[in-house]
Amino acid sequence: MAFDRQITLAITGASGAPYALRLLELLVRANCQVFVLISSAAKVVLATEENLQIPAKPDAAAAWLIERYQAQPEQIRVFGKDEWFSPVASGSAAPKQMVVCPCSTGTLSAIAVGASDNLIERAADVVLKERGQLLLVPREMPLSSLHLENMLKLSNLGATIMPASPGFYHQPQSIQDLVDFVVARILDHLDIDQQLMARWGYQGAASK
Predict the structure, then answer these.
(1) Most buried in the list 109, 127, 172, 191, measured by CB within 10 Å?
(2) What are the Flavoprotein domain coordinates in residue numbering (predicted)?
(3) 39: annotated binding-site residue?
């Protein structure tokens, strides 16, 4: 089966696992092939916030996620932090779009200085150098001057900073509504059609 596009999704150790899981679900529905990178800290957060135990080995994790989201074979591929021969590590093969959701401030800092000490950092560095689309979804408060300086630096480099700050004009009735607000905005920026939330000024409830 041909996929409409490829997208890299990195999940790091900030609070906000529901955002990442919902985003992955909808990327699969949109017929995207998703290259998933999960940090060790993210696995702790996923277990804490969602009671999910992601298999340690990348192939097992991919099979687990494919079953969970009823994805097509190879639609979700998972790479370990040291898989330097994976497509996301090279500008000649990496998807041109990448989302780090949620994005820890440690990952934010490492990307800002081009550390590339693990595959998440390298993948983000590749997207920046190839002039692709990098979306960073930090979930932290308050923000220190250092955090803000890193965000400004990355914004100036072409990344889009999208704090996980849901709005309320759609009159949310549940936590899921708040999650969907943020995920809908991410999908909008990726230019992927979404029916989670009606845009401002448009009437009618969106279909979920």
Answers:
(1) 127
(2) 6-190
(3) yes
Annotated binding residue 8: no
The answer to whether 132 is a known ligand-binding residue is no
Kindly state the DSSP code that residue 135 receives in the 8-state scheme: E
d(CA 122, CA 18): 24
For 184, the token pair is: 């809908």
Question: Which residue type sits at 81?
Answer: K
- Is 185 annotated in a binding site? The answer is yes
14 is annotated as contributing to ligand binding: yes
> Tokens standing for 31?
């017929």
Asked if residue 165 belongs to a known ligand binding site, the reply is: no
Mean pLDDT of the chain: 95
Q: What is the DSSP string of 67-129?
A: HHTTPPTTTEEEE-TT-TTSGGGSTTTS-SEEEEEEE-HHHHHHHHTT---SHHHHHHHHHHH
pLDDT tens for 68-110 read 999 999 999 999 999 999 999 999 999 999 999 999 999 999 9
Is 139 annotated to bind a ligand? Reply is yes
